[in-house]
Design goal:
The protein has 143 residues and is mostly helical. Helices cover 73% and strands 0% of the residues. α1 packs antiparallel against α3, α4 packs antiparallel against α6 and α5 packs antiparallel against α6. The two termini are 19 Å apart.
C-alpha cells in the first residue's frame, strides 16, 4: 500500500485508538478497584498509579486525536506506545490470577488475544501518530 493511500486508514485507526484509550482512561478513574486488583504487588502507591494512568490515557487520547499539532500527536503516540509496554506486567498478573481461579476467570479466549495484541497496540500508537511509517513506507527511494 502506498503511503498516500494509507492516510485515510491511518486517520481512522488513530481516531479508533484514541477512543479506545479514552474509554480505558475513564474506566481507570471510574472503576479503579478493577485495575487495583490486577496491579502487581511490587507497584508502589498503586492507587495513585491507577489514577494517573487513567489520566495519562485520557490526555494521550486527546492529543492523539487532535489535528492541529502533528508534533503533539507524535509525542502522544510515543507516550501511548510506552504506556502499553509499561502496563504489560499488569496484563500478565491478570492472566496469572485468572488461571489460578477454579473457574478460570476470563479464560484463555480473553487473555491469549490480549497478550498477542499488545505489540499491535504499541505499533498502532506509533504508526497512527506518524512516529513511524513501517511497513507502509516504500522500501527504496526513487531513482
Amino acid at each position: 500500500m502506498k503511503p498516500r493511500m494509507a492516510e485515510p486508514i491511518r486517520s481512522w485507526l488513530r481516531r479508533m485508538l484514541a477512543l479506545l484509550y479514552a474509554l480505558a482512561g475513564i474506566a481507570h478513574l471510574d472503576q479503579p478497584h478493577s485495575f487495583l486488583s490486577i496491579t502487581p504487588d511490587w507497584v508502589p502507591q498503586a492507587e495513585r498509579v491507577v489514577f494517573w494512568t487513567g489520566f495519562a490515557e485520557i490526555a494521550g487520547a486527546a492529543a492523539l486525536a487532535q489535528s492541529f499539532s502533528p508534533r503533539l500527536r507524535r509525542f502522544a503516540g510515543a507516550g501511548l506506545a510506552a504506556y502499553a509496554i509499561c502496563v504489560f506486567p499488569a496484563n500478565l498478573q491478570h492472566f496469572a490470577m485468572d488461571m489460578e481461579r477454579s473457574d478460570g476467570g476470563l479464560g484463555l479466549a480473553y487473555h491469549v488475544p490480549r497478550m498477542a495484541l499488545q505489540p499491535l497496540l504499541v505499533w498502532l500508537a506509533l504508526w497512527t501518530a506518524e512516529v513511524i511509517d513501517w511497513p507502509m513506507r516504500a522500501c527504496c527511494p526513487p531513482p
